[in-house]
Amino acid sequence: MKKPRKPAQPRIVIRSLVTMVAGLFTACSTDSQPEINSNMNAEEIRSFDISVPDGVLTDLKNRLAMTRLPDQIPGTGWDYGTNRDYLEELIEYWKDEFDWRAQEEKLNEFDHFKTAIDGLDVHFIHERSPVDDAIPLLLTHGWPGSFVEFVDIIGPLTDPEAYGGDPSDAFHVVIPSLPGYGFSDKPEERGYNPERMADVLASLMERLGYERYGAQGGDWGAIIGRVLAGNYGDRLIGLHSNFVLGGPPRGAGDPEAGVPIEELELRQERARAFANESAYQTLQGTKPQSLGYGLNDSPAGLAAWIVEKFHGWSDHDGDLESVFTKDQLLTNITLYWVTETITSASRIYYEARRTPPTRRVGFIEVPTGAAIFPKEISFTPRKWAEAQYNIVHWTVMPRGGHFAALEQPDLLVDDIRDFFGGLR
Q1: Which of 34, 153, 183, 386 is most buried, judging by how many CB atoms fall within 10 Å of its CB?
Q2: Could you confirm whether 349 is annotated as catalytic?
């Protein structure tokens, strides 16, 4: 897929009211433009530029230079956790070659904003398509990802014609940083579970003037998307997920009856593979604060914690950099470092365990599309998924794992286009 660079545009701190209003129209109907949300004013949504202070980056380099790595048993590779040789190589690159300012400039090519919702400043990218009747699409990340996972698919989604696609497949893209992640505020109270985050995202899309829109996500983004579809289903055109979770249907006799043997085998294989990868869930779900002291203080520790997940959850046949570049890995890791959000981001596991939802999400009536990547951390057979979702689209991918937008952007973009193309 050809990926032309978006032309540079002048950036300003405060946009004119005319420019602001122009970005608020939804494009769900080709017949008429909807009215702007009457509660909008120029102060509610503010333009935002990423600009990390020099002192933060200098401190990072100084800490990297003082890294003290533990020993590792020779020949153990990634068996015990993050491989020391690879981490040492990554740290040296981070310290001596990685250019955050170049990544910052690339990220600032997109239109960033902040707005206050539920007492928090929420950061988001709002990149509108040149195609007026494009579908609004909410893209939601998970942990240990961030909004930067989606940067390579923004162009193909918003301007498909520039990438050799059909302009009728265009989307207006909204990519928030979840509360506690990236440049969004950190919650200072208990209870920011997936339901509350879904409420925040629904409020964001409403504030942008989008009455009807699509949603897409993986990891926590998929879980939050399910809650969004369950509680705000009248607003969703469709739900697209690359992380479809679900157990066997209740009260249906033998749950494996009618499930293809290859699907049962894939589910078992994925369960075996993830059995040795899941300790982080227990730790972050019970004692995220204790973990946070070390990860917030040591960039080497932070990198080891995050890169282990990218190694263990992706499809790379033993060569991590066959699917991720060092710059991609370190842009995400550096974002966690400069915003000091590893602790606040990890708390979603704690909150999900301890804050029960106020509304039960049952069968998802919203048309749902599933992109099934073979190295995803879990697999739900289609028959089981159909008992919980209105599955109208199911694609089994030839390759890829948990971080679909980074690992296989072309496959993900094509599937998003195919799914929503059938709902236009």
Answers
A1: 153
A2: yes
